Amino acid sequence: WQTENGVLLPSLQSALPFLDLHGTPRLEFHQSVFDELREKLLERVSAIALEGKVEERYKKLEDLLEKSFSLVKMPSIQPVVMCVMKHLPKVPEKKLKLVMADKDLYKACAVEVKRQIWQDNQALFGDEVSPLLKQYILEKENTLFSNDISVLHNFFSPSPKTRRQGEVVQKLTQMIGKNVKLYDMVLQFLRTLFLRTRNVHYCTLRAELLMSLHDLEISEICTVDPCHKFTWCLDACIREKFVDNKRARELQGFLDGVKKGQEQVLGDLSMILCDPFAINTLALSTIRHLQDLVGQDTLPRESPDLLLLLRMLSLGQGAWDMIDSQVFKEPKLEAELITKFLPMLMSFVVDDHTFNVDQKLPSEEKGPIPYPSTIPEAFTKFLQENRLACEVGLYYVLHITKQRNKNAFLRLLPGLVETFSDLAFSDIFLHLLTGNLTLLGDEYALEEFCPSLFDGFFLTACSRKENVHRHVLRLLLHLHHKVAPAKLESLQKALEPTKQSGEAVKELYNQLTEKLELRKPSPAEVTETPSMELPLPTVPTPASR
């Protein structure tokens, strides 16, 4: 039996006794020969997949699959069967069903085979993608609530290319491969989840996924996605954090080029523009344009570049409504936004300039001119009723905070208590604001600053919005040593978590309490302090002797 089933090499028979002398079992020898043959076979299968005419090579692989598939559950043969399937562009339906029905086989097969299974099984593909999408959203939220508060390293710091190297985007890119059907499925999942949750991070993923496929030059998908060139151009703007004139013209060309009957593409474009990284770039560019217009004595309505930025911001902000209503029409810009609100923002910039000039002039008898402390009622009304005005207004507040302009900040802060759908209490704005507020460190000791910031703004929403509670605690963890002790004590009481508070709030509060405990002087120090203040005994100097 051994002779019949052994390796039929005449020269081998005389050599085998040597292995016996070394105490090597025949099983070990045959196993190593088997492994070696399997490796050679795997190499051969990969080679067949690349040589000869297309029909011939796939015919060979199909024959091989037919012969070997019955052994697919044998662990030693399974890699060969999986390799054959991996190299077949179309595995026979019957075989795919057998793989799908067996959990272990499904787990063991290559992603190339899984793609063929997924494209006809949306539910199964959804089960694979769903945990990745959850992980992605969680990562974004963790970044927004990170304990490291800094102006230099915030949510928007990583470049688009760096973000695309993230685990989730890379895994999804690999799962999709060049399969347009799977790409469309992922986009459908993202649209559905965006509609269901209003979470704008799904819009970021939509753009990142397309650009990740662009990086790999997968033309099969990029050429059929109508948003590809628009997203590519916008991606360059996001990288520079500014929309220059040349790219603005390109973007405008894409928007103007939406043909009749293809309006549906506006839904996808609006989702790309709703990505917080796009909104951030457009809003920063808007503020920069407004400042330039002040210097040029030009009104907003006379600047086509500014109007284009507003048009794109408006389209991005209307993404949810457009996809929900399925009415694919660009939202109209309100005339009052351009004729009243933006000139009002420009007047705030002028107020700053005139105040700074007044400070430098020699003071006359009438005394120094105070900084304007009131805000026009119309400003507050715009922030409450107009989404676009609210977004631009909030970015102006971030701008003045970054410039350490305490006067302008305290002037506009009361206008942020009530804003359009509570945008001033959204995570992205609060994440950026807390970062910028670290620059005003020395102002926290001043009498009017903390009451305006904490009592007048943050604490108005803490009880009803847990995310605000978390952001205030993040800020205090970073700046508690700058706040006056009495104010810190009252804030500690006001920020104490309730029974309904989540774990994250309790954890942050405990961290703050620990930090404040460490700062308190120990009882020993307190008792010693008075003795240090006793008058020192007079010591006669050598001269007085």
From TrEMBL:
<protein>
    <submittedName>
        <fullName>Negative elongation factor B</fullName>
    </submittedName>
</protein>
<keyword id="KW-0648">Protein biosynthesis</keyword>
<dbReference type="GO" id="GO:0032021">
    <property type="term" value="C:NELF complex"/>
</dbReference>
<feature type="region of interest" description="Disordered">
    <location>
        <begin position="519"/>
        <end position="545"/>
    </location>
</feature>
<dbReference type="Pfam" id="PF06209">
    <property type="entry name" value="COBRA1"/>
</dbReference>
<keyword id="KW-0251">Elongation factor</keyword>
<dbReference type="GO" id="GO:0034244">
    <property type="term" value="P:negative regulation of transcription elongation by RNA polymerase II"/>
</dbReference>
<dbReference type="InterPro" id="IPR010405">
    <property type="entry name" value="COBRA1"/>
</dbReference>
<dbReference type="GO" id="GO:0003746">
    <property type="term" value="F:translation elongation factor activity"/>
</dbReference>
